[in-house]
Amino acid sequence: GQNIDQPTEMTATEGAIVQINCTYQTSGFNGLFWYQQHAGEAPTFLSYNVLDGLEEKGRFSSFLSRSKGYSYLLLKELQMKDSASYLCAVISKAAGNKLTFGGGTRVLVKP
Amino acid sequence: EAGVVQSPRYKIIEKKQPVAFWCNPISGHNTLYWYRQNLGQGPELLIRYENEEAVDDSQLPKDRFSAERLKGVDSTLKIQPAELGDSAVYLCASEQGRGREQFFGPGTRLTVL
Fold it and tell me: Would you call B99 an interface residue with chain A, using a CB distance cutoff of 8 Å?
């Protein structure tokens, strides 16, 4: 099976930086996704990592280390609208190449 | 381009009643997923379709859940009879190619009383 762990909740201040960690255990890793989900809304795609390293996209960056089974999502210059849940999801052969989600990290941005 | 469409957005039923959810994926997306998301948790896959074929339904509770995608486009997920524990948000997602990003619909929030 797969095990995906991420913190349940984080709080940060507007304008600051927050790093959301995700660790996973799986075999046949084929990629890691980050999704953003505002309360009561659908998850929306943020990033995809399949090779080691950092992928930067505006204020959001995602990092992957396959040897460590570790990823993080970095949110810079936090805005109030960034208050949401952030879902880490892994696709792997062990899970039949389907997306398996972590429980999500709820980020609260305070003024 | 229209996104993934789901209806209804909300449904409240009494236990033992049947319920059905409908999904229209993004045009041209051959892969369709149904997920269930409980409060404070990530989505869990129920079934995956490649065109009209259900290629992964291992996590679908087949005693009460059924799904179909007859023409390889729209899909329907049914629960009969519903139980209290079925209260959740049911999300539909579609994907253009395997292993690429999935696009989610707004979901149907089901409350079973």
Answer: yes
